[in-house]
Write a structure and sequence with these properties.
- The complex is a heterodimer of chains A (220) and B (142).
- Chain A has 220 residues and is of the alpha+beta class.
- Chain A folds into two domains: 2-84; 92-214, Histidine kinase-like ATPase, C-terminal domain (Heat Shock Protein 90, 2-Layer Sandwich), CATH 3.30.565.
- Helix content of chain A is 56%, strand content 19%.
- In chain A, the strands form two sheets. Chain A has a five-stranded mixed sheet, covered by helices on one side. Chain A has a two-stranded antiparallel sheet with strand order 1-3.
- In chain A, strand 4 (155-163) and strand 5 form a beta hairpin.
- Chain A is elongated, with a radius of gyration of 21 Å.
- With 142 residues, chain B is of the alpha/beta class.
- In chain B, strands 2-1-3-4-5 form a five-stranded parallel sheet, with helices on both faces.
- The longest helix of chain B is centred in the last third of the chain and has 34 residues, at 107-140.
- Chain B starts with a strand and ends with a helix.
- In chain B, 33% of the residues are buried.
- At the A-B interface, helix 1 and helix 2 of A face helix 1 of B.
């Protein structure tokens, strides 16, 4: 895996960061299911002592458990797609789906920073042939910067558009871009850009970070 | 008198089910979806124990604990978190947390810890009151 050799520790750290977030979300799902089961036991104990069981309450409990299972299933599906993103160094992907995955994986971190994430989803597919894992890693760095540049209470809008020779991904509404600290892109991002033949442009006038991708990643 | 508990967690579903179960056990429960909301509620009333989540938007549990302890040194905080780590647990305990429990939590254990929290708080409040009386007596020269 030449790409993985190139990104090395940075890639492992990215994988770890996303896995930590996923495991935290799953813990929360299990905690709620655990409490629902506990409440069911409480209600049974109360029924044994003569208190009547309320069927409406029981139905609501079953509905709550089903909701948590749906929530857990969504988290595990994202985790599975994310895990398989490292399978291939060059595969044709629809960037609309990749952005959906990026947002799903980043929701907890966005929530911690009080930032909302929105996708401006184009109706037509935006495909490129690239390394999905490395691209996700690069887009996470961009989103991390974008969330800092937007600031708490703000929204980061993410858009994808097809061009003749590839695609653009844009992180918009970065109202605090002038004051965002640190240099971006720095060496970790540049290493990923080299792998992906990508470019990052900071456009203060339109308050956005734009990432250009070629139609096809150059094979090693 | 019922044990009075403040539960702080950004997971709405967890918050409501925990509140219901603890109320079924005869506790008086108040909930807050953020650390900021919890701090506002602590200004208005006192609690025997605070159940605090570690990772929450804008202000995390550790920062909230520090503010709470500064305002109410006798406050009893029990962390209940889906993100347990030894380093965070040690940090929380050093800052004065009473306990650090991973989710999913055993409610019988938690109920026991809330009772312990109530006892510890009462001892601290009594001690604080005695110190105040002693100071008044000394200052006034009675």
């Amino acid at each position: 895996m030449a790409h993985m050799d190139l990104i090395g520790l940075s890639g492992i750290q990215f994988f770890g960061k996303m896995s930590a977030s996923i495991s935290h979300d799953l813990k929360n799902v299990l905690a709620v299911i655990n409490e629902n089961a506990g409440l069911l036991e409480d209600l049974c104990l109360m029924a044994e002592k003569g208190k009547s069981l309320d069927p409406v309450r029981l139905k609501r409990l079953a509905g709550d458990v089903k909701n948590q299972i749906r929530r857990g299933d969504r988290i595990i599906s994202s985790m599975n797609t994310f895990a398989h993103s490292a399978d291939s160094e060059s595969v044709t992907i629809d960037l609309r789906e990749l952005l959906g995955l990026l947002v799903e994986l980043s929701l907890r971190y966005a929530s911690m920073r009080g930032v909302r994430l929105e996708i401006d989803r184009p109706s037509d597919s935006v495909t490129v042939t690239t390394s999905p894992f490395v691209l996700l890693n690069l887009l996470w760095f961009c989103l991390d910067y974008a969330m800092t540049a937007a600031g708490p209470g703000k929204t980061v809008e993410i858009a994808a558009e097809k061009t003749a020779d590839g695609a653009w991904l844009r992180f918009r509404k970065l109202t605090g871009m002038d004051t965002a600290a640190g240099s971006f892109p720095a060496e970790p991002e540049r290493a990923l850009m080299r792998v992906l033949n990508a470019q990052i442009r900071l456009v203060p006038d339109s308050r956005e970070v734009a990432v250009s991708l070629p139609n096809k990643i150059q094979e090693e | 008198m019922a044990d009075k508990v403040l539960i702080v967690d950004d997971d709405k579903d967890f918050l409501s089910i925990m509140a219901e179960r603890m109320q079924n056990r005869g506790m008086e429960v108040v909930t807050a979806l953020s650390a900021a909301e919890a701090l506002r509620k602590l200004e208005e009333e006192s609690f025997d124990a605070v159940l605090l989540d570690l990772m929450m938007p804008e202000m995390g549990g550790i920062e909230a604990l520090q503010i709470m302890r500064k305002k109410q040194p006798e406050i009893q905080v029990i962390f209940v978190t889906g993100h347990p780590s030894v380093s965070k647990g040690v940090e929380a305990m050093k800052l004065g947390a009473m306990d650090f429990l991973p989710k999913p939590v055993d409610l019988s254990d938690l109920t026991e810890k809330i009772k312990q929290a109530k006892d510890s708080r009462m001892i601290l409040v009594e001690k604080h009151t005695q110190e105040k009386i002693k100071k008044i007596l000394t200052d006034k020269g009675w």
